[in-house]
Every structure is written in C-alpha cells, then in structure tokens.
Amino acid sequence: MNDRIEHPDMPKQWVDGLVPTMNDKGFMFEVIDDYAEAFIRFAGDSPDEAVEIGCAYGVATLAALRAGAKITACDMEPRHLEVLASRAPEALRENLTTHAGTLPDIDLPEAHFGSLLCSRVLHFLPGDEIDQSVRNMYRWLKPGGRLFLVADTPFGIWRKFIPTWDENKANDERWPGMMVPPVKYLPYEPSDEDVGPPVMNLLDPDLLQRTAEEAGFVVERCSYINRDDFKGLGSMDGRENCGLEAVKPA
C-alpha cells in the first residue's frame, strides 16, 4: 500500500518514498510494511477505536480511516498532525482524533483502544523508555487488544554498527543497539547537516519480543522485515526492519 504525500507545507522530498519530518527527526516512509498493513486491516474491521503512535503525516492512519477505522493519531510534532487532519477525507474526519505527545509520557485513556500501531519510533528511545512505553501501550489497550510494532535494526543504513552490535550481544548487554551519536555510524562520511537524533537504540525480533512479553503481551508473530524498497545503502539483506504483532490477554 502506498499513500503518496503531497501538501504545500511539507518539506521537499529528495529521496523517492521518504518524506522528511518537520522536526528533523527523520523520515516517514510512504511504502507500508506487512505489520502496518495488518494493523490497518484489523483496525478497519474492529468496532473499537485504534491508535497510532508516531504517525507523522499519517500514511497508515489515513489508510486505516479509509478501511473503516475510528482512530486517534499521536505524534510529537503538532505540525504533522495539522497536515494529517487537512488530508483526511471530509466524510471521515469525524472518525479521526489527533493528539500531540511524546513517548513514554503520552496521556491516553486506559483500556480504551482495540489496536495500536507504533512504527519506527521505539528505536529513538533509550532502553528504559522503550520498556515504559510498551508497558503504557499495554495499559491503553483493551483486553484482547492488538499491538503492532516496527523498528530499525543494524542491518541496513546502520550496517557500520554491526561489529559493535555483535560484540554487545555477545556480552549479553540488555540494549545492544545503543548508538551515541548515531551519525557516526552512517555508511558514508556525514556532512555538517547530518546531525540527526542524539541517540538511537536499534532492535531485532528477540528484543521486541522480550519487551512485549515483559509488559504482559502474548506475542503471536515477530520477525525481520524485508525493506528492499529502501534502495541504496538503506537496503542490505532483508533484515532492515523488525516487526511484532501481539495481543493483550482477555
């Protein structure tokens, strides 16, 4: 599924399929992966409200709306939410709520949502905040609610970090993917404009599953995601992202 983003307030897209954020935190990917597709299908078929955390300009949120979902879209950047709201079809806007907030401290109602998508957000957090965020997601979901997570791995644009990742894994470090600062692990010589986030915390299926299970979820599937759509240095061997689908016990 591909929802091309076109809006006069958007930063210029210089790589096809990557939409820069307004807060210099990265990009929103226009190509939706299998875990986000599963969220869209589930949310569209469910009578319960869904929520997307870190929605950016809303490529998944808008697809879920069109599939029939009632959804709350959360992002740390209010300008992203303004763009999203303006792009929602008029006939579906009553089914969309926007909410500005940053993990892990987003204020959402407990046991309210039937499904939750958090795609390519957790890897921007230190480990304790990842754990707290997923515990909060458990609280926000109803019993029987479904969780969908997607995160970056070392096996793509961050390939320069792989030796450190392997060493950290061998030493049983709880969070082997911590990069400080991430920019020094880019697979090219960074320019003065390549500042990026101060921390990234790369994950893999095992780490996603551990975090979800420790929060109380029952994991139904967890795997690497082949993102050959990343192209160039962003694509490596089919392990570029990792994803998880889990359920909160009824």
Structure in words:
With 250 residues, this protein is of the alpha/beta class. It has a single domain (18-247), classed as Rossmann fold, CATH 3.40.50. Helices cover 26% and strands 23% of the residues. The protein contains six helices and eleven strands. The protein has helices at 34-45, 59-67, 78-87, 127-140, 162-170, 205-215; strands spanning 18-20, 27-29, 50-53, 71-75, 96-100, 113-119, 141-152, 178-179, 200-201, 218-225, 241-247. The strands form three sheets. The protein has a seven-stranded mixed sheet with strand order 5-4-3-6-7-11-10, with helices on both faces. Helix 1 packs parallel to helix 2 and helix 4 packs across helix 6. The two termini are 31 Å apart. The mean pLDDT is 90.
Portion of residues within helices: 25-40%
**What would you call the structural class?**
alpha/beta
The CATH first-level class comes to: Alpha Beta
Corresponding CATH superfamily: Vaccinia Virus protein VP39
Number of domains: 1
Task: Please give the CATH architecture.
Answer: 3-Layer(aba) Sandwich
Low-confidence stretches: none
Name the shape in a single word: globular
Instruction: Count the E strands.
Output: 11
The largest sheet has its strands arranged as 5-4-3-6-7-11-10
The H/E string reads EEHEHEHEEHEHEEHEE
Rg over CA atoms, rounded to whole Å, is 17 Å
Count of helices?
Answer: 6
Question: Main beta sheet: strand number and arrangement?
Answer: 7 strands, mixed
Strand proportion, as a percent range, falls in 15-25%
Stated plainly, the CATH topology is called Rossmann fold
Residue-averaged pLDDT:
90
Q: What's the N-to-C terminus distance? A: 31 Å
